[in-house]
Specification:
The chain is an alpha+beta fold. The protein has eleven helices and ten strands. A five-stranded antiparallel sheet has the order 1-2-3-5-4. A three-stranded antiparallel sheet has the order 6-8-9, with helices on one face. Strands 7-10 form a two-stranded antiparallel sheet. It starts with a helix and ends with a helix.
Length: about 325
């Protein structure tokens, strides 16, 4: 954090009067930065973390799409876009991290609160609008197009098959009771991946991380944040987060007013749900195996991993 004021001055010509840590997500640290009478939100992806390359590799590909959506779609004002640096870039970096700066959104994360009827309608309208757009937009989408590969799967498979008995004891004790279910899940994802690569599926722009911690309520509207996972993909990549929600029927009723021929593809839905489950498990394993964590942080990560594993118990 000591380097942040000089970084903001160099790349944004901002004089930071105060910098306050905020609740971050899996991918990044977060800070509220006060500069005069303006406030900004700074996301910091630490280069020491094993997952950082996954979250930052496509910044220069996905951010222009969010900028286009902000300027040319019905999502104007409903998603954040980064402040450009003095050099016209979407990000800046140093030896320790990669940084994205946003104007601060005054509002409250939905988080664990139940969505209201109004918020359900807003969310449905936002996702229906997002899914109107595909590779025909005048911004390059090739880098974010779904190809149904699962990049982390070989490393996960190798860890389960060859390395499990070499894992630190606290991880090994969690993993071994679930090895059978994890291998079955991995087999299913590999099979679905191979099948779906050969299908001609309609693809649309998808957020791919539609959970309530990525929804913010301002005094005017609902906003959808954290667009690192933006993909050109079958719409099940978004709808997998909603199908088990109690408000799903209400969501779909509104969604179908825009996409009247919509129907869930069960194979695609299963692929995304299984892949996400394995991805979450691998994310926590990766943190435990490769990141430098204090004892309290490691205990919290072990708890998260345990919860994910218990949810696949057969």
């Amino acid at each position: 954090m000591d380097k942040i004021p000089s970084l903001l001055k160099e790349h944004y010509d901002l004089d930071a009067a105060n910098i306050l840590p905020q609740r971050g997500g899996w991918a990044a640290l977060a800070f509220k930065v006060y500069c005069g009478n303006q406030a900004f939100f700074l996301k910091v992806y630490e280069k020491s973390r094993a997952s950082t390359p996954k979250w930052t590799a496509l910044i220069d590909q996905y951010v222009p799409i969010t900028v286009w959506l902000m300027q040319h779609s019905g999502l104007k004002g409903k998603l954040p876009v980064p402040v450009l640096t003095n050099f016209g870039a979407y990000k800046c970096e140093d030896d320790e991290g990669i940084y994205l700066l946003y104007e601060y959104i005054e509002g409250e994360t939905v988080g664990e609160k139940a969505l209201t009827a109004g918020q359900i309608a807003e969310l449905s309208n936002m996702i229906a609008e997002l899914h109107l757009y595909g590779e025909e937009i005048p911004v390059e989408t090739k880098a974010i197009k779904e190809d149904f590969t699962v990049p982390f799967l070989p490393q996960l498979r190798n860890t389960l098959d060859q390395e499990v008995h070499k894992l630190p004891s606290d991880i090994r004790e969690l993993i071994i009771p679930h090895l059978k279910q994890m291998n079955e899940l991995t087999d299913s994802v590999e099979k679905l991946s191979a099948e779906l690569k050969n299908r001609n599926l309609r693809m649309a722009l998808c957020h791919t991380d539609l959970h309530p911690w990525n929804l913010m309520q301002t005094d005017r509207q609902l906003m959808l944040i954290d667009w690192e996972g933006l993909k050109l993909a079958p719409v099940e990549a978004d709808l997998m987060f909603l199908v088990d929600e109690p408000y799903y029927d209400d969501f779909v009723h509104i969604y179908r007013q825009v996409h009247n021929d919509f129907a869930i593809n069960p194979d695609v839905l299963q692929f995304y749900r299984y892949r996400r489950k394995l991805e979450d498990i691998w994310e926590f394993m990766e943190q435990l195996l490769f990141d430098q964590q204090e004892a309290q942080e490691r205990a919290a990560t072990l708890n998260h991993l345990s919860k994910e594993l218990n949810e696949i118990r057969g």
